[in-house]
Design brief:
about 200 residues; mainly alpha; 8 helices
């Protein structure tokens, strides 16, 4: 599920871009709505949401790497993945997050900066960036997932080694201590009366 959250955070990062503290008047709500409209923010969100199902499946496959599941177990996990995808899509709708994004933009950007972004995204280059951004993000996520899958066996082995060490340390702490007294020293031997005196 970490990949799902990564996708969601990446979506917000795309919307926020390179945020800087506002140095002058806060932007108006209307100008931010215009910016979202020019950026096709609702369509961008829809594009990201279409990737949720594949992202959930990839995340589950990564978590279950190397495990053999019977058909019933696979069905249970597939149903859970579908429910997670549906839940995320139902909650992360544009009408639900637009008020939050407006507040984020008002607290982050100045009116001057919003006006500059409006000018850029209304340009031919700006519209090209918006059109190609979902593809770039999808390719980026695919590459990240590939790297994560390559790390999975190493992470699993580290977890097994750590679990074994923790178990061994716990067993050593609770091992019964020996209660037998140390062997007594042998009694001193009496000196022979014929022993020579120095």
């Amino acid at each position: 599920m970490k990949l799902v959250m990564t996708l969601v955070f990446a979506m917000f990062a795309v919307f926020a871009a390179q945020a800087a503290l506002a140095q002058d008047a806060k932007p108006s709500e209307e100008s931010i709505r215009q910016l979202f409209e020019v950026m096709h923010s609702s369509k961008l969100l829809d594009a990201y949401m279409t990737q949720i199902d594949s992202t959930v499946r990839a995340s589950m496959q990564q978590a279950l790497a190397g495990q053999q599941l019977n058909p019933k177990q696979k069905k249970i996990l597939e149903d859970m993945g579908a429910e997670i995808g549906s839940l995320v899509k139902a909650e992360l709708t544009w009408p639900a997050i637009e008020p939050l994004m407006i507040e984020v933009y008002r607290d982050t950007f100045s009116q001057h900066e919003v006006d500059g972004m409006l000018a850029f995204y209304r340009s031919e280059v700006g519209q090209a960036v918006i059109a190609k951004l979902p593809t770039a993000m999808q390719q980026s996520m695919t590459g990240i997932q590939s790297h994560a899958q390559a790390l999975t066996p190493k992470i699993v082995q580290l977890e097994k080694d750590a679990a074994a060490q923790v178990k061994a340390a716990g067993e050593a702490q609770h091992a019964p201590q020996s209660t037998q007294p140390p062997p007594a020293a042998p009694p001193p031997q009496p000196q022979s009366p014929h022993s020579p005196h120095r």
